[in-house]
Amino acid sequence: MQPSLIEPRDLPPCHVSSGTFGSTRTIALRHAFSVSAGLRVSSSGGCFFPSRCSAGEEHPVVLQLGGSDPETLAHAVRLASPWSYDEINLNCGCPSEAAVKTRQGHGFGAQLMTCPELVRACTEAMQEAASVGVSVKCRIWTHPTLADLERDGDRFETLLRFVDTVSAGGVRRFIVHARSGILAGLKASENRKRPPLHHDFVEELQRERPELELTLNGGICSLEEIEETRAKGLEVMVGRWAVQQPWAFADESARARGRGAILQDYLAYARRELQEHREDHLSILADPLRNLFAGVKKSGEYRRVLSEALSSSPREGGWDRFQTAFATALSHLPESAFEGEK
Ligand SMILES: Cc1cc2nc3c(=O)[nH]c(=O)nc-3n(C[C@H](O)[C@H](O)[C@H](O)COP(=O)(O)O)c2cc1C
């Protein structure tokens, strides 16, 4: 059996996203979840593909590109083709300074929302180069500062115009983080909490453009919300909640087996990844297990010990170091943390 942190369950398919990829890698295993693997195309055209995306058991995996030059993006798509990604995504949602400051062209990320024609040109070039679908992850809009947002407000029409312009070039799938991106004055992490969410914009978009495949993202943190959103015809992408509380997604069978059994499955998987040289970064490999015990007594101690053991020179030590780090960290947890539900 392939290892999985979370067993397949009768949960509506939703998408789990993390720029750190490793944090959600196991959630993608044997689960109808997609992971967007963050990747930058540098202004000089250089590309970095995380080698771990090629593992067959981790599909479906979406490769996310950041860029604004159609030719460079098409080149990146062609370079990525041997890695068998299931979908290629263009990042039109990142408001970080690095994205804004990219010197050449229009940078990448959220600021591209103000240039829908350019996004269409990019995605057209990407589609021509790709043998799989191309999608766009965007915000509802983007403003230079919070003061601009306060003055101009968020308007559904601007989102609609963006989506109409881009979809005219053939893109059918949009993943919408339902808040505006603020390009200056807010850190990336603050840009995930502010400005306010507008799920209603994405719902309206679904009603206006039912032919598109739309995914709602932003602030979803209950299974009920996922169900309710899907009942409206939208897919759901979950970000921080899935990373912070992976056990919330455990189904009946996983709960019956308990966190201990799931942990053992994952450790067997990690051992293979390390020994077969698909992954050598111990800290990234440990990410999916950091919050497995969230809510359990002494889980803070477990997390702290694990971090301390793996943070320095994370590519050194291989399986022996990994296993020792876990043995030490896990020893802080009570026996009951590993048991399944009766
Ligand atoms: C650590 C971290 C890294 C992220 N990196 C990316 C990224 O590379 N590309 C992207 O489109 N979104 C990225 N996001 C944003 C998430 O995909 C998502 O849009 C955001 O967290 C809002 O969803 P949530 O409220 O469910 O967390 C990142 C989020 C976090 C917390």
From TrEMBL:
Domain DUS-like FMN-binding: 52-309
Pfam families noted in UniProt: Dus
Keyword RNA-binding listed: yes
Domain of life: Eukaryota
Keywords from the named record: NADP, RNA-binding, tRNA-binding
Coiled-coil residue windows: none
Gene3D superfamilies: Aldolase class I
PANTHER family: FMN-LINKED OXIDOREDUCTASES SUPERFAMILY PROTEIN
Annotated protein name in UniProt: DUS-like FMN-binding domain-containing protein
Originating organism: Durusdinium trenchii
